[in-house]
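Record type: ASSEMBLY
Status: queued
Input:
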Amino acid sequence: MTEHTHIHNCKSLLGALSDYVDGELETELCREIEKHIAECENCRIVVDTTRRTIELVRAAAPLDDGLPDEVRCRLFKRLDLTEYLKPQK
Amino acid sequence: MVETTSQPDISLEALRGGDRAAFAKLVDAYSAPIYRLSLRMLGNEQDAEDALQNTFLSALTHLSGFEGRSSLLTWLYRIAVNEALMILRRRKPEVNIDDIHAADDDETEDFFPSQFVDWGSLPENALLSSEGKRALDRAIQSLPENLRMVFLLRDIQELSIKETADALGLTESNVKIRLLRARLFLREQLSAYYGERTLQENTND
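Status: finished
Output:
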């Protein structure tokens, strides 16, 4: 969708938005986006707030919370693996 | 997440051969992400625990057929998504789950931004107050089901585009379209919510 296109208006920016905020867009197109958002306040806001939306979702949902002990015990029991149930680190 | 952390030392051969100690290792390595995904897909602990148990029971049955084309975690995610969908289907028969696997058209017009409040510079502790977190949860829960699955796997579980596509049985380009729509949808919801707070803050200055 984004390859070999140019970012010349707000709609084409939208097509490249995900790759841009993920840092997966080629340099040339990044430059075009940066040029566009320097002149287009609405697109600048869309880029900033989209990036912020993803950051917030990740900050609010930490990935390192473990499995509650009782859930783990019941899982091992259901799988008939209780003999391998060692305390979690 | 999958690319950045090394795979735990579990022998695929032992797993396929029915080695129970190896399976217990697999359960301990991957039950937490599977449980979190189930919890976010289903929204309550009881259903999430059912989905978790069913996922590993199903994995136990089908391990001998696992060919190793995707990582074990991606394979488990795919099973978990299907288990969660079965629970959702039972709970809400009116939701057309088949849409989740259907191809998308190219139209993103409906998702074109309409809110342009510049709330991005509000500090994180203001954005993630307990009320802010509730607003965020509500926004995620209000995503259409087919977009929510993609968003949960890619932006919350931090799978790659390819892994998300593998887990959902979608093409990568469909994943990209849905991810963009989900992000724009959430941005729109959060802009409505945080926008009011930005205005209040400016008035208080």
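Annotation: The interface with chain B takes residues 1, 11, 14-15, 17-18, 21, 41-42, 45-46, 48-54, 56-61, 63, 65-67, 71-72, 74-76, 78-79, 81, 84-85, 88 of chain A (CB under 8 Å).
Annotation: The first helix of chain A runs from residue 10 to 21.
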